[in-house]
Each structure stands twice: as C-alpha cells, then as structure tokens.
Amino acid sequence: MDRVHTTAISLTAIAFVGLSLSPGNVTHGAKLRTINTPHQRANLAYDGSNQTIDLNGEWRVKCAEKTYKNGILISTKDSDESLIVAETDKDGSYQLYKFPRGFGEAFPRLRKIASNQYSGQDTVNGITTLVKQNVDIENEKIIIRQTTIDAPSNKTEFEVSCSGVRIQSALSLATSSIETAACKTEPTTKERADPKLAARYKAIRPFSDGLAAVAQVPRGESNLKWGFIDKSGKVVIPIIYDVVASFHDGLAVVGKSYGRGRNLKWGVVEKLGPQVTPNVHYDAVKILGEGFAAVGYARGDRNGLRWNLINRENTTIQYGFDDIGCFVNGRARASYTAGGVVRKGFINKVGDFVADEM
User: Fold this and answer.
1) Spatial contact of 354 and 337, defined as CB atoms under 8 Å apart
2) Which of 10, 45, 212, 236 has the highest CB neighbour count under 10 A?
3) How are the residues of the chain apportioned to helix, strand and coil, as percentages rounded to the nearest 5?
4) From the CB of residue 218, how many other CB atoms can be counted at a distance below 10 Å?
C-alpha cells in the first residue's frame, strides 16, 4: 500500500497538562519552536510481592487539575470523563495513556511497589522538570496522582488527580473521520525485495525511499507488527507498529493501537531510523514533502482538528492551524482561525505566514 487511506478513529489522546505540548487556549502560534527530547526513565525497585493487582486494562475516570506559579496555587479545573488505558511493557513496567482530547507525551513509566500500588517518575525538558506519578487500586477502583515539579526550584507546577473504575468494554465517545495522508512528492518505486529476503517475513511491500515495509507476528502475540528494512535486509525501523505507510521525502506515517478498544494513534518516523515524534499519540499525520510533516490533534473546545507543522527533528515550526497543505518550492497552503475569522495564505519553512490578499 503506497498511501494511507481515510481512517475512522474513535478516541483522541492527551497527556496530563504537566507534559502536554498542546497550545492550550491559543489557536495559532507566532514562530513557536520547540524540540521534544525523549524522557529519561527512572528505575524504581519492585518489592517482590507475589500478590497481583491487575493494572492492565481500561478505566473510566474523572480528573481534577491544579496549576501553580512559584509554588502558589493559581487555578483549579475539573475535566470531563476520560478513558485511561494501561498496558504492560516488555520490561515489566506499565504505561498509562489518557483519552480523549488533545495530544501529548506518555505518562511516566510505572512499576509495582506494593500489592496494590504503582509508582514512577520522569525527568523531562532535559533535567529541568520532574514528573511523579502514583496509582492505587482497590476493589476495581483506581486513584491516579501526578505532580509536575520545577527541578531547580523544587516547586510544584501542576497537580492532577483522577479517580474512577475499571470498565469491561471501550468507552463510547464521539467519533470523527479524519485523513492521515502523504503528499505524493516523488514517484514511488515498485521495486520488490529479493524472494529469499521476502521469505523471512509474513508480508512485505515494495521499496519506497530505499526502505520496504515488512511484517511479522512477534512471539507471544497474534497480530502482525510492521517495520522497515533496507535493501540489504537490515531492520532500519523497528517492527513494532500496527500500521505503516510508504516513505515520502524521508518520512513515513506509522500507527499504533492502544487498549482493548483498539484506539489507533499516529506518529512519524525518519528513514535513517529514528522515531521523529517521541510517541505515537496523534489523531492524524500528514507527510507534506520537503522534509516536513503536520501532526493533527483534537481540541475539546473546538470542532475538527488542529495541526502543528514539524520538521524531521520534531521541531515545531508553527502550531494551531486549521489545515496545512503540501510543500511546493518551499511553501505550503495553510489556514487558521483568529477572533472568529478564518485566515488563509501560505507558510514557509521557517514559520512565516503570508496571508492571501483580500
């Protein structure tokens, strides 16, 4: 499959406000540039308890958020009902994902510290921010507490507390039909891998940008996972994704499903091997050509998606667009809404927006 087709996605993803990269109440940014760095994981010791309280699964919760400035509480907000998906990683740690609304980083990685307690912490933004998270489970009820601390001053910036219950089926939320696509900026080769190489995998696609998508069923699992190999057969992009698209101008769309509800989210990978977006949590992705992509996320206070323009280093060039088109000769069509007025024009590679003449 050379292109990614329209995909119906039922849920939208967000991290807690302390880690979110969402523009908040701003609908459009003026030359915002941020480089997202991978989280540094803290190792927490497991107490060795044999009693198991199962964190895995889906939980329906409501959350309260507190924001501080210089250690002083300045605002409090209660959120709508949300879905928490808990999954176990191969190293035995746990990862939580929160749906719907917006986008953001994963929660801190958790490890079991008691029969019914899990805890973890991350340093983010280099080492300037510390995020602590604790989970307690009792009688199929869950309590989650997350605190974001400014490390240099040791002052709290955000506190989020959630409580709820385990659910047996996917939380029913409003659905939207959105397009995850690539601008076809160059011919896609139909060259196929050598039959002996292809025989190693359950499925293999033609090469694009020198890489071919391959699939296999990992040990202990039942579903295909996809990645990419080069012409020598070396695995360049790990075989960990549920959905992949062909490469265009060095970038490709990848997708992962979260939880029993199979909540499909999207990210971007680069042909040299790295995952461009630190996490695969976006509601849509467009490969725009000339080394750029747009990542789309839902906003709880607005209909439709908002789009951020990023480059292959995951630097955010501009954020908050209603739409971004393909790059041609260094610029792309774009539009955003400000003060209830839709503004259309072009954006260039450094984030300058030039409005159409009225």
Assistant:
1) no
2) 212
3) 0, 55, 45
4) 12
Q: What is the spatial distance between Cα 10 and Cα 16, in angstroms, rounded to a whole number?
A: 20
Per-residue pLDDT for 163 more than 90? Answer: yes
Tokens 């690539």 label which residue?
182
Assign residue 242 a region (left: φ > 0; alpha: ψ between -120 and 50; beta: otherwise). alpha
Give the three-class secondary structure for 151. coil
Beta partners for 146?
133, 160
End-to-end CA distance of the chain: 41
CA–CA dist 150, 144 (Å, integer) = 20
Alpha-carbon distance 326 to 184, whole Å? 9
Residue 230: count of CB within 10 angstroms of its CB: 16
- Residues pairing with 61 in the sheet: 82, 164
Question: Which helix (H) or strand (E) element contains residue 40?
Answer: strand 40-41
Decide: pTM greater than 0.70.
no
Task: Output the CA–CA distances (angstroms, integers) from residue 222 to 91, 124, 218, in the order listed.
Answer: 19, 34, 8
Written as six digits, the tokens of 312 are 């292959």
Element (H, E) at 198: helix 195-198
Taken as a whole, the chain contains a residue count of: 358
323-328 and 263-270 strand pairing: unpaired
DSSP 31: S
What is the spatial distance between Cα 184 and Cα 289, in angstroms, rounded to a whole number? Answer: 8
User: Under CATH, which architecture does the 40-167 domain have?
Assistant: Beta Barrel (2.40)
Q: Do residues 108 and 101 lie in contact, with contact meaning Cβ atoms separated by under 8 Å?
A: no
**Distance, C-alpha 221 to centroid of its chain:** 23
Domain assignments of the chain as residue spans, ordered by start = 40-167, 187-247
Using the 8-state DSSP alphabet, how is residue 232 labeled? T
| Confidence band, pLDDT 50/70/90 cuts, at residue 76 | very high
Q: Compute the distance between CA of residue 75 and CA of residue 54 in angstroms, rounded to an integer.
A: 34
CB-based contacts of 50, cutoff 8 Å, min separation 6: none
Rg of the chain (C-alpha set): 21
